[in-house]
Model the fold of this input.
Amino acid sequence: MTLREQLRKKISAAFYRHGLLCASYPVPIILFTSASILTCCYPLLRLPLPGTGPVEFTTGVRDYNVPFHEPQGDLGERPDWYHGPPVAYIQQVLVKAAVSPWDSSLVPVDVFRSPLGKVFSLLEEIRNHVHTDSSGIRSLEALCLQVTGLFPGLRRMQSVLPEHGCLLVSPGNYWQNQRELFDSDPDLLRTIQKHEPKGLHTSATLRDLLFGVPGKFTGVSHYNRKRVVTYTITVVLSHYDASFLNSLRNRLKQLHPSANCSLRDDHMVHVHFKEEIGIAELIPLVTTYIILFAYIYFSTRKIDMVKSKWGLALAAVVTVLSSLLMSVGLCTLFGLTPTLNGGEIFPYLVVVIGLENVLVLTKSVVSTPVDLEVKLRIAQGLSNESWSIMKNMATELCIILIGYFTLVPAIQEFCLFAVVGLVSDFFLQMFFFTTVLSIDIRRMELADLNRRLPAEAGLLPQKPVPLRTREVPPPPRPSPHTITLQTPAFRNLRLPKRLRVVYFLARTRLAQRIIMVGTVIWIGILVYTDPAGIRTYLAAQVSEQSPLGDHGGGVLPPHLPVAPVFRGGDPTSTLSIHPAPDPTTLPENQSQGHLGPARAGRLPHAPPAGPQITWGADDEEGWRRLSFRHWPSLFSYYNITLAKKYISILPVIPVTIHLNPQEAIDMRHPQDTRHPPPSIPKVSADFQTDLTLYKVAALGLAAGVLLVLLLFCLYRVLCPRNYGQNGVAHGRRRRGDLPCDDYGYSPPVSEISPLLLRGHSMDIECLASDGMLLASCCLAGQIRVWDAQTGDCLTVIPKPGWGHVKLLLLLLLLLLLSLLLSHVLLDECYPLRRRSAPSRPPLFTNQPDLTPLIDTNFASLPPSNVSTPPRVGFDFGGLVERAYTEHEPPSTYPSPSSRSPSLGDSTGPSTQDSAVGTQGSGDVSSVWALELRGNLIAAGRSSGKLELWDAVEGSLRCSNEDSVSGITALAFLSNRIVAARLNGSLDFFNVEINKPLGLLHRGAPCRGSVPPSPCYSSEDVINCQLTRSVQCAHHKPITVLRAAAGRVVTGSQDHTVRVYRLEDSCCLFTLQGHSGGITAIYIDQTMVLASGGQDGAICLWDVLTGSRVSHVYGHRGDVTSLVCTNSCVISSGLDDLICIWDRSTGIKLYSIQQEVGCGASLGVISESLLVTGGQGCVSFWDLNFGDLLQTVYLSPSGDGQGVRQLLVLDNAAIVCDFGSELSLVYVPSVLEKLD
Amino acid sequence: MTTMSNSDRRQRPGSKESHRCSWGPYISAITNRTTNLFIRGGMLFSVGVFLALVLNLLQVQRNVTLFPPDVISSIFSSAWWVPPCCGTASAVIGLLYPCIDSRLGEPHKFKREWSSVMRCVAVFVGINHASAKVDFANNVQLSLTLAALSIGLWWTFDRSRSGFGLGVSISLLATLATQLLVYNGVFQYTSPDFLYIRSWLPCIFFAGVITMGNIGRQLALYEHSFLQQKTHQD
Done:
């Protein structure tokens, strides 16, 4: 065990170091890995291209011996398949026959009828040929390949192909090799055509098989202008007997001499056929591949929490694939040539190697603490999984080793590949994938955060500008633009980089083009290397057209590929042809132009008036012009497969037959003459065959169009109609279906555990903070002060009386208790409390509703126990008594309706008041406004009382009760407090500190708007004095009050905004322009003033002149909050829409649909980072681009309570108000990390 | 050929049902437990039939030439009742496994992911492929190799004792059943080997049982988690 532990520790340490290394030097490592992949793959270049074309090998005829079964050592260039006897020897007798001289009395049928008729006598000759020499008598019967029956499925071929006996095919088979049938056949062409398959066909047709030359070369048609008929008699031999074949050749040559024939007869070609993939094999193969893709899909689906899921999935697949390639490459390097069918074993190799490790790595790394440095995260993640990775790897190696000892060659080979693949996969995982992962994670963190940095904040305003200038000419600022036109343009410009790359790819169709080019090249190479392909075709074309070249230049172009062979074969004949015949001979021929016989090796002594029979180089290996499936299909009819075998093709025996016209006329069938003469004589014979090509093309085109239409329909059915519409994609989202931006991109979600600040028994009403401290007040009138850094509750007001340290200790102790118990109790009590609020009055008649009094949170309970040790337990008696008394005088203040979000819509003023002040001071009014500056809390109560509390000590420092009208809003700036009252009056207070010693400046100033707050020591006597009261500032309740930059701005329900100077409380401007009550005002240090009203309008004002800068309508319903940044104005309304406006032009840039009830919760963290609240979550948005950066769920269980208020502190924390709880979120710490 | 084809059965959670499982809303329409059971059985049945056909083809093509007469008809060349039998067997096995797991009270925790199931199916097809394509020196070697591969399959993807026991017993029963069929002349082997059984038959059966069980468990897991979710919501 100890050994195991040690090993484990060592492995873990090694992986840790390795992770550090990879994350530290990503670029060099990736380069190194790519280099090693390429090096290992280099030997693959020597492997043949995948394809099923046959390969050939030529040997001489004279010294030919049947190759031995066992390959004997190194035999030079001899291919490895060339051993053992071939399946068959193919002897073709190439017959060229013509009626000559051509007579005008002849009908077109005569072109081929009598030449074809000659096949029967030739067949007779071949069949009956007997060679006798010293070793005995040999006939064709003994040598030929005996077939025993057609393949069962080929009944229709029965009448045509020989069913038993010698495999000997010729055009005579159409007529069962019987001359009588041929003679009595009225229409030869129809007989031939009868057997053609109806549909389209790609492989060899019966006509090709029987004629042995491609259809258009046979000359069997009415439009044959050359009047030469070409066909072959194909004899398939199973044994090779040189002397018999020689005697046959000599005999035929003797009978039908082809004097001008220059064909070489000293080479035989061995053609090896690769394994063909039939449909039967294809189905399992396709199945395995489907399983493979499903495997990859399910595996990569698990990759999560990374910047680019697709990127990592791609990296994973690349890792596996290149490790496979590396293994094949390495194996070939060391002399192991793969004999297995790569396509078949490939899926299994992938499955064996697997993607598991990659996924495990990713999971492990992303589950490391987010606030660590990237390097350390990678290293930790690696070392966490090191043991399991090594264990798995060892297990797999063991299994494969066992497989190796099965001693089955195929399995051994597979195992060998798998071992090398596993090792190289491990290597790639460790180097390539880990590095990619580190880059990805770094990108993820950077992407969220780079804009947060103060250092970069200055760069930001410029950012969109170069973009605009580059892509679209910048819109001239002053000229009016309609909002609808401008919006999409701006949206398009402000795309994130990721999308820009995608769009670039889409615009240039880069990937598509690369794939297309690659495919074309691949096909090209295949076609060129294919023996039946373009090369031979080109050679044939060139040799056919060479006489035309002679017309012009008179010299054979030296670069023709056939020329050397041709000249070498018969130099004299070649040399003698070219200058002489063409210009001088046959005027008839000349008139026919190049349609006439144009063979290269034309006969000089051909009869001038008749068709000439010529022998060219392409006749030498005429079988090359056949489909390469020709021989496999011929043999497959007899249930003989050529896959992985080879056949030997012997040199053709040329036979030239000249028939005189009389013979042709004699052989005519009576109906032949009735055949109408060719109606379109100018149509070339080739045209007929070309027609099929056009048909194929047309059909293909139609199929393609159909496919596109089908896909389009599918797309329309499957895709939502509103795809890509602005602001709709993320509407009502539940937990589980994540918000995504307009392009369907859903950013990573991180669950962070926020600090939950619990303690209020009722919904939180006001929030105030100065960055260090956080004050909150609930409907019950209880004020709590929290440490904004740690989330500790420092003070409960009114409940003063404990020391700081004691409190902390207690809190720590009781936090545990409360965590345990509050879960149980709160779960039960919370709904009760919610329900009871509106129904309290009826309940009251019977018994007081005590639920708000039962303080279920133990964090606040114990202090009372500690501070008053003798009183053990909870004083229910007192509470009940108080509850009775408090319920009696409901103070009836008119509730300002515009304050609905904060003053609670469900709880009217009466119930508020009844719940207020149950503890401590006995004050019966609720807190309507709260401000915090330094360690002083200013609280404005509904009774019109202004109180100043010490935030740390929790003691009341002073209070002012000059007016009885409720304070609806407060502003606290340096030592001045402005209070707005319900009756529309505005009171200016001066806070006087008698011993002004402790004016410390602390903390960073609040987002540039607030001057450093003074800190008051507890000894100071603080006096709050009313300096001025503007009695009728507004004639309706003041709803908003904001102060900044020495100005106090008030907004009221009387549709006006007023600006006061703070020092002398003098009214500077009355701003009119709204047609509804003012609901939101924003003013900051730079004198930007924006106001929003119930009419949904937003006005921007110039504070210096009091003029309206711009006026836009953006919301249906009230504007609930307003924030400005340097470049834009962000507004939210009751319609739950957040709109972002360009500040200078007043143009709406874009809008974000919020969840119901969360519309008002928004805040700006930095110039470009917007945070909004949702159901149980907060989302971060990039203001410049309008895309969602991240969504943070605040509670692991995800009870979707909406964020009602959101306050951004200056230490990058966010305070969210969830009913009676506060949530303190540090903006994911990654934000502060800079890499 | 006919007899050979008989041996291949079961497995492969095609991408089809996995997709169906991921479409929560579709399943959520079904609240009834019995209906769910039928759906699972149906999926397993179709998987079994499909695999029987494909693997049948794999075995058939061993003897065919380049141009099989009619590929489609060769798929169905074996007795028509073989694929349905395989389907039924796979459905039974796939339902049996989670059932036994819950009876024994030891829920299967090992590698419960679709990717692992896909891997298992791929390996199973690979075993079949190997048995069809690789030329072994003798049948004992073939049997031993296949047995080792099957055990490896179990070790890699299952590792539960109940799974092993069930696999062994079912494969023995199935081999016995095929033997009985052969004795009664419903089938005959083209060439009986190694104790008059197709030597690789039990191994293939075993691997198939393991694979089908894997799929069945995964499907059951989906249902389970769905039901849990449902009750949670309520």
